[in-house]
Amino acid sequence: MGGDNPAGGPATAREAASGRFDFIIVGAGTAGCLLANRLSADPAKRVLLLEAGGRDDYHWIHIPVGYLYCIGNPRTDWLFKTEPDAGLNGRSLRYPRGKVLGGCSSINGMIYMRGQTRDYDGWAAASGDDAWRWDAVLPYFRQHEDHWRLDDGADRPPGFDPALHGHGGEWRVEKQRLRWAVLDAFAAAAQEAGIPATPDFNRGNNEGVGYFEVNQRAGWRWNTAKAFLRPACYRRPNFEMWTGTQAHRLLLEQVDGETRCDGVLVRTPQGLEEIRLNAGGQVLLAAGAIGSPQLLQLSGLGPATLLQRHGIEVVRDLPGVGGNLQDHLQIRAVFQVDGVSTLNTLASSWFGKARIGLEYALRRTGPMSMAPSQLGAFARSGPDKAWPDLQYHVQPLSLEAFGEPLHAFNAFTASVCNLNPTSRGSVAIRSADAADAPLIAPNYLSTAEDREIAARSLRLTRRIVEQPALARYRPREYKPGVQFQTDEELARLAGDIATTIFHPVGTCRMGRDDDAGAVVDSRLRVRGVSGLRVIDASVMPTITSGNTNSPTLMIAERAAAWLSAGE
User: Fold this and answer.
1) Binding site per annotation, positions
2) Boundaries of each Glucose-methanol-choline oxidoreductase N-terminal domain copy (predicted)?
């Protein structure tokens, strides 16, 4: 098969599996696509990329607003749900994860966000390795970046530092191709409330308000499959990719008293197959914060009591596998407005929808080009905070819940999340069958600190909306409602109206040698198992202060450099 038909799968899985590989990458998502590109650049290394989902040839993947048709769609989404959550007053949430080439980069909000300097300095402290400090990882963000402000003739306003960004890399970063009067007014109101304007959220301190930059190219979604697989990998005879191929178990062997990963057991359209490594080869788990711990547990690497409960032989008792789940919980406050257009009414008629479609067809602009959230703000929940601990995603629309119709009145939604939650959840296998979705228990709002920040964040939202810049639109609080005022009421209401913003991380976290809960070391090697690494968002010790897709790419870039150097 080689590079001639990389996405179609081998003619017969057993024939292809008779060969051995230097790298087997499990998961063709955000991290996996970059790893495949970097590692297959060495023609002496044979690389296999495995993806449980299909090709990214569904048209709604590439039209930015198409996330509405990809989330909750079995063609592109694993369709996970969380367990009933006490912090959400017993509610379960839809938990989207990409099941397609490009993974979550094919269905996410496209927002380019690195986080804050302190996030990475904290990782360095937790792992005992200065390779994760902000100054050390910044070159790995820049390496694959292609920032629009570095294009010839692009505007570079005060506050934008070209030295912090890259140009000519695979990962395109562009400005959005539309603006909304109601969002401009919210930005002005935020400034009146003390949040400064910023031209760049990615300078290490993201405090400020402005329009998000997005991973798009000329009005199309730019996912990691387009960025890193096509065309480079597809031209390489040492690269193979199998879609529709789910990993069921790692192949682990005991050699001279040590545990080594020798390959992967997968299910292809032709059935179960074993894929083996060359001597000295490595399996790289890039299945994400849900898939990677699930596969480790199915393979006998995880909490012994959990594995024994499901009749799985304990190869290594690694209690941290599946623990430390962190996510950003967004509290969606909705405000009805007058005298300004929002998507609610703009898309309320067939004529309006036709105009929107025509604008996108002709110019690649307008609502069909927009990310789920256009305006962002990073702020402090109180004067006691030394850094921004809140993030706003502001949208010129409103609805009762994701997937439901837009409201019949004009409104905007100011979603706010605690960037640094102290609540911790878990991912655990439901059975010994890889086809069974794991138990996902985020444990939202389970600490007093998180409940306090939830109440603070709603109060700050109200203070912004009360500023003069929004007054001409007469904003009225539709949700949660002005009748709720006390901290206890607001925290309880947060449990009623909050939802995930799709940023699960931390379930295979890195840590020091003396950290019993660490799953991987600072170079992302699984504890006590040679030939096996985890390279995705699950290795984050703590969640980044912002959207998590681009930090995951940086992790893969950092790891690829170590692997290419033989470290």
Assistant:
1) 100
2) 288-302
pLDDT in tens, 336-395: 999 999 999 988 888 888 998 999 999 999 889 999 899 999 999 999 999 999 999 999
> Looking up tokens 């990214």, which residue turns up?
56
Reported as a single tens digit per residue, the pLDDT across 447-493 is 999 999 999 999 999 999 999 999 999 999 998 877 777 888 878 88
**Buried b vs exposed e over 432-465: b needs ≥16 C-beta within 10 Å?**
eebeeebbbbbbbbbeeebbbbbbbbbebbbebb
Look up residue 152 and give its two tokens. Answer: 């010839």
- Work out the burial of residue 221: count CB atoms within 10 Å of its CB; fewer than 13 is exposed, 13-18 middle, 19 or more buried: buried
List the one residue out of 218, 266, 258 whose CA is nearest residue 16: 266
> 288 with 104: CB under 8 angstroms?
yes
Q: CA of 363: how far to CAs of 58, 107, 368, in Å?
A: 21, 22, 11
Helix (H) or strand (E) holding 53: none
User: What is the total count of domains within the chain?
Assistant: 1
Q: What is the largest CA-CA distance in the chain?
A: 75
Residue 23 included in any domain: yes
Question: Is 166 in contact with 149 (CB distance < 8 Å)?
Answer: no
Per-residue HEC secondary structure of 148-208 comes to HHHCCCCCCCCCCCHHHCCCCCCEEEECCCCCCHHHHHHHHHHHHCCCCECCCCCCCCCCE
On the CB side of 171, how many CA atoms lie within 13 Å of its CA? 29
Bind-site residues for FAD? 100
C-alpha 47/C-alpha 49 separation (Å) is 7
Say if 515 falls within a structural domain. Answer: yes
How many whole angstroms separate alpha carbon 51 and alpha carbon 69?
A: 21
What's the token pair of residue 523?
Answer: 């170079």
**Nearest of 500, 537, 498, 504 to residue 520 by alpha carbon:** 537
Determine, yes or no, domain membership for 416. Answer: no
> Which range of residues forms the domain containing residue 62?
1-79+97-155+218-322+505-567
**Strand 329-336 and strand 47-50: pairing?**
unpaired
| Domain of residue 231, CATH code | 3.50.50.60
What mean pLDDT comes out for the span 161-171?
97
Q: Under a CB-based contact definition with an 8 Å cutoff, are residues 323 and 540 in contact?
A: no
The angle subtended at Cα 219 by Cα 218 and Cα 223, nearest 5°, is 90
Which residue out of 147, 165, 407, 503 is catalytically annotated? 503
503 an active-site residue? yes
